[in-house]
Amino acid sequence: MLTAMSRRSHRLENSGYYDENMEPIISYKETLHRIFKRRRNRRQPKRREAIINKSDNNRGFTTYNLILSLLYCGLVYMILNHNFVDHGLTESPVSPTITIEDPTAIYTNIEKRLRHLQDEVLRFKEEMNSLLPVADVMPNFALESLGSRVVFSRSSEAYQTQEAHLTFLGIPLRKPPVSPRVVIQGHSPLLPGRCWAFAGGQGHLFITLSDPVTISHVTLGHISKDISPTGAITSAPKEFSVYGMKNVNDEETHLGTFFYDQDGDPVQTFKIPNHKNGFNFVKLQVNNNWGHPDYTCLYNFRVHGKLANRGERSPQGCGEY
Question: What is the model's pTM?
């Protein structure tokens, strides 16, 4: 009778795992470890309960569909009955007569409505423009942001107040005067103190226009009495004149003399007599003010018109900017 020989490992034999009789000296017991967890047996609903619930749902769904069908049929019947009774139609509800409107009539109706809407938009724009000052709906060619400049060397000197506004280590410092550029920067609204002042009641401002312009209007702006801290605007210009030049050294062309009303609107526009020449430079000459003995203030000045021949434009850089 043959006895089965136990399987031996040369590595274990060399490491002293067996005795002289080739019996294992060390014995161990293998422990099995489950890699995958056993899925728990969840309790499934009974087949009979599922069938009952499904039957109840189908019964409820069928009843709901039946109610909707009855309501739909009733609504269709009411609509058809209303149409045939009110209009006296004798056609069968099964085959009603369908009338198609003429496409030309549809297009004519749409065109008529569109024309009406366009008229309403134009009327609304006119009403809005009527609420704005005239100067706000015309281009301003004396605007610094468009390229206009003040020629300092040909303008009056700014008024320098004698009162010290600041002190440094006990030394009185005078506030620097406001630049005449503020007159053509287009600030809105006009605020007290944000203006250029020159000494006395007479002075002038020389401006390079952004483009050669056939001038039609000029606008002069000043704060109103309502927002003046003193309740008066005696420093506002009273009578002023406007001159135009094509070149900086040309003889001045008188465009008109105008009267600024201190009791009128803060921004007043004046029409220039018909001049067909284009001008690159404008001079604003203030002849007197409304009674202030020390200085006159200019808040805003604008030049309106149409572009002249661009070939007549003089190069900028005349004077000091």
Answer: 0.57
